[in-house]
Design a protein that fits this description.
single chain, 385 residues, alpha+beta
Length: 385
């Protein structure tokens, strides 16, 4: 472990190291002062009412820091390491991609198999019949970015059939277009293979084994466990005519809501302490060590970069416009969430905000996320000196 980062950790308690500024050693406060000032200034500027941050080294406990409140109401609860945030598109990597990893590892899911092998209602002929699981993960299946599924009558299966009926945007594997629909379809593939709804499979096979007790779809009515107290959930808001209201414990994404709150592209809620555990698993596997739920070879396969591509299987590569190594992978979420894992430099950073409170039109989180990632990257580089 790098000396400086190790020293900071040694000064805190073991486990998930929550570091409130009022009760930490001066050395730790000094080392994180720049990051604290960035996030606190962003809160004052209206980027988000609060935030949670986790920074971790390979094989070491994380440092978790929390800021502000869950809502702009001055009487609302303070953000803690157990505050639940709507993860939005982090669902794609924390949930759906991880489930796909497990099924590929078990030999139950073939990356280059056409998806009609798993979905009885999917077309077998034409370009749609040639769409593969790999293409869904790479976002080059030809499916459109999204659609207004909440206008489509029927249940989850009927809405999937509607997706299957729509024309493709382009010939599969000829370009890359980030697609919520593709991950919705992949979630359905996983459900048909496991004969279990996505929330049940993930809870039993991923979240419970990893001790991620805060990670749920539909936190007010989870498939397993008791409802979460609203004081633990950061609210969001949708600035649209169809559902312009304060949301508290309900998924912000309209398509996920139309699918019962459980979908392959969005719907998960989680805490910073849970996502630190998850990030450590991916970082450990990417470093060549097997984990509790996934072999290192499986994680390495999904994170492997392709020449000229900006995406791996399910994940986004950092690229030159982010302050990480070129092999770093991550994802962002519409609600103001992000996760980045850098196997080469051996660290991860998770940032959770609810920037869509008070309005989804708020874009101030973009600068916040960039500044935090840069500061964390510099902090970790300093540890390696």
């Amino acid at each position: 472990m790098p000396r400086a980062f190790g020293a900071a950790i040694a000064l805190l308690a073991l486990g998930v190291l929550v570091a409130p500024a009022s009760a930490e050693p001066r050395e730790v406060a000094d080392r994180f002062a720049r990051i604290d000032s960035i996030i606190e200034a962003a809160i004052r500027a209206g980027a988000t009412p609060g935030a949670a941050l986790a920074i971790g080294r390979r094989g070491a406990p994380p440092v978790v820091r929390t800021y502000g409140r869950i809502d702009w109401d001055p009487q609302s609860a303070m953000v803690t390491d157990s505050t639940l945030y709507d993860l939005a598109s982090l669902t794609k990597v924390v949930g759906t991609t991880t489930a796909a990893m497990m099924l590929v590892q078990q030999g139950r899911l073939k990356l280059d198999a056409p998806i009609w092998r798993y979905l009885p209602s999917w077309p077998r002929r034409g370009a749609k019949g040639r769409i593969t699981v790999r293409q869904l993960l790479l976002h080059n299946s030809g499916l459109a970015e999204g659609a207004d599924l909440w206008w489509i009558p029927g249940d989850r299966e009927e809405r999937l059939r509607w997706i299957a009926s729509r024309p493709l945007r382009y010939k599969p594997a000829t370009r890359t277009l980030y697609s919520d629909l593709g991950m919705i379809v992949l979630g359905s593939v996983i459900e048909h293979i496991t004969h279990t709804r996505l929330d049940g499979f993930l809870d039993a096979r991923v979240f419970q084994p990893l001790g991620m007790r805060d990670t749920k779809f539909n936190p007010l009515n989870p498939r397993n466990g008791s409802p979460f107290d609203l004081a633990r959930i950061a609210p969001t808001e949708v600035d649209r005519e169809i559902r312009n209201k304060h949301l508290h414990g309900e998924v912000q994404d309209l398509n996920a809501a139309a699918l019962g709150g459980v979908a392959g592209h969005a719907g998960l809620f989680s805490s910073i302490r849970d996502l630190a555990r998850f990030a450590q698993v991916i970082l450990t596997g990417a470093s060549g060590k097997d984990t509790k739920i996934l072999r290192a070879s499986t994680i390495e396969r999904f994170l492997a970069a392709r020449p000229g591509a900006r995406r791996t299987l399910g994940w986004e590569l950092a690229g030159e416009d982010r302050p990480f190594s070129k092999v770093a992978v991550g994802h962002t979420g519409y609600t103001g969430t992000s996760i980045w894992i850098d196997p080469r430099k051996g660290f991860y950073v998770v940032l959770l905000t609810n920037r869509v409170d008070p309005t989804a039109a708020n874009r101030k989180h973009v600068a916040l996320r960039k500044a935090v990632n840069e500061a964390v990257s510099e902090l970790m580089a300093g540890d390696d000196d």
